Amino acid sequence: MKSTLAAPAVVVAASIALAPGPAVPAAAAGAAVGTEASAGAREFTPGAVAERFPKRGSLKGYKKAKRWARLPKVRYIRKRESGGNYRINTGNGYYGAYQIAYATWRAVNGHRFAPTADQAPKYIQDYVAWRLFKRAGWAPWGG
Question: Is the pTM of this model over 0.70?
Fold first, then answer.
């Protein structure tokens, strides 16, 4: 016996969170009255997605990580590993500008910010890579 899920109401709410423009209640965006999306309707703002990442100044050692990320050797590593593309996911098991493996990302607590490096913003990737560098030196990137 097949079951149907009420996923479309959730999809509508997710698309509202990414849409630019003023805050829009979920019910006004086309969700049917009485559905899951309109029952607990809350307003979505364009910046709601970005709020899940901590502010730059709240990360311990952020300024050091920022300076580290500007070093010529680090810029070279980013260029060599990913062409400087922070959003890269080639399907080889390594993610983001520094091509960090999933297990390594978790080991340096990157999963607190995003599931994989390619899903984290630039400053988070730089910060996590700096923490990895503090732990293991240049070895993760070939010495």
Answer: no
Please state, in angstroms and rounded to a whole number, the distance separating the CA atoms of residues 62 and 68. 10
d(CA 12, CA 107): 35
At residue 89, the 3 state secondary structure works out as strand
Quote the pLDDT of residue 51: 62
What phi and psi values does residue 27 have, to the nearest 5 degrees? -65, -35
Asked if residue 79 lies in contact with residue 48, where contact means CB atoms within 8 angstroms, the answer is no
Mean pLDDT throughout 22-42? Answer: 43
Q: What tokens does 6 get?
A: 């009420």
| Distance in angstroms (rounded) separating the CA atoms of residues 93 and 1 | 37
Burial 115-128 (b: 16+ CB within 10 A, else e): ebbbbbeebbbbbb
72-82 vs 62-69: helix axis angle to the nearest 10?
70
For residue 97, give Cα distances in angstroms to 13, 51, 101, 127, 133: 30, 22, 11, 12, 14
Model pLDDT for residues 50-72, shown as the tens digit of each residue: 567 777 777 888 899 999 999 99
